[in-house]
TrEMBL record:
Classification via SUPFAM superfamilies: Nucleotide-diphospho-sugar transferases (SSF53448)
Top-level taxon in the UniProt lineage: Bacteria
Organism: Pseudonocardia sediminis
Name under which the protein is recorded: Glycosyltransferase involved in cell wall biosynthesis
Pfam families per the UniProt record, alphabetical: DUF2064
Length: 236
């Protein structure tokens, strides 16, 4: 923590999938190979975890699925995950897994609010995450929501993590998931503050767009390597 920063006690949940070739970021293929797509996913996850761990006062919780040993950059991933509380994802639908992740964070860190991000917004800095946490703790705020450019959302914060149960039946991964989530929170009587919109990475164009925002990051280096490989393989 740097001088002047105030610790904001909060559980930050990262919903993550082991970056195994053929199992992550398949919409990047083509132009990426399965190995290249998994490398991008691993870089994005590691950059996200670094940002989370740099938030003053954070209690990091990773809701994880998949085999770590089969992941790209497995050794580095092991080292970072060892600095967090890791819980297994539970539930059939994505909404159920989100609700379970918040419940698990509440069990690990009673009385703390929760912020949940996924592994596909590596441009979400520690500063931005800290600002989201402070917004959540502002008097009169029960929840925060950050919309994504594809119609979903990239961050969800709850003063009471158990209220995530109301999202179990909200359709996820749809072009109106963000609007549906906001409506569900407000229908439950929660006072919701919105935070900046971000692009989450699902396509090659989005990968290039986001990489430009985080020069020097693992993610940017992975996108550069992918771009170079594609250029080298193109016909003259």
């Amino acid at each position: 923590m740097t001088t002047g920063e105030t610790a904001t006690p909060v559980a930050i949940i990262v919903l993550a999938k082991a970056p195994v070739p053929g199992r992550v970021k398949t919409r990047l293929c083509p132009p990426a190979t399965a190995e290249q797509a998994a490398t991008l996913a691993a870089a994005s996850l590691l950059d996200t975890l670094d940002a989370v761990l740099a938030v003053p006062g954070v209690r990091p919780v990773v809701s994880f699925t998949g085999e770590r040993s089969d992941a790209v950059l497995a050794e580095e991933l092991h080292a970072v995950l060892d600095r967090t509380d890791v819980v297994e994802q539970r539930g059939d639908s994505l909404g159920e897994r989100i609700a379970a992740a918040h419940a698990d964070a509440a069990a690990l860190h009673p009385e703390l609010p929760s912020l949940q991000v996924a592994m596909d917004t590596p441009q979400a800095s520690a500063e931005l995450l800290g600002e989201c946490a402070r917004t959540l703790l502002t008097p009169g705020t029960d929840a925060v929501l950050g919309h994504a450019t594809d119609g979903g959302w990239w961050i969800l914060g709850l003063r009471d993590p158990r209220r995530a149960a109301l999202l179990a039946d909200v359709p996820m991964s749809c072009d109106d998931t963000g609007a549906r989530t906001l409506a569900a929170l407000r229908a439950a009587g929660l006072r919701v503050a919105t935070v900046p919109e971000l692009t989450d990475v699902d396509t090659a164009d989005e990968a290039v767009e986001v990489a430009a925002l985080v020069p020097g990051s693992r993610f940017a280096a992975s996108v550069d390597a992918l771009t170079s490989a594609l250029t080298a393989g193109s016909p003259a």
